[in-house]
Sequence to fold (98 residues):
Amino acid sequence: MKHVIWVMWPAFIAAGIAETLFFTMIDPRQLYLFGELVEWSPTATYSTGFLLFWLICMCSSLMTYFMMPQAAKDALKRAAGERDDLARPRRREPGERL
Fold:
């Protein structure tokens, strides 16, 4: 599951930035697709655009992960400590040192 999060979370951030930049310059009501005016609501256009940007960014992140050397993947696994929940610190066992 951690590997999926390592791919999807950076892609989510990148897609948000890409959508912001794209729709800052292009009005969704004046968007053309295959020579036809897109007649969706602006909210539907923003949502679809974000999902498409996210898909593209996920493919990029996934390709980066697959091309990463095995030593780097092993280092990531060691850094994560093979814990299920990376958001909270691991509980110390009684008598365990820091």
About this structure: The first helix runs from residue 2 to 25. Strands lie at 32-33, 36-37.
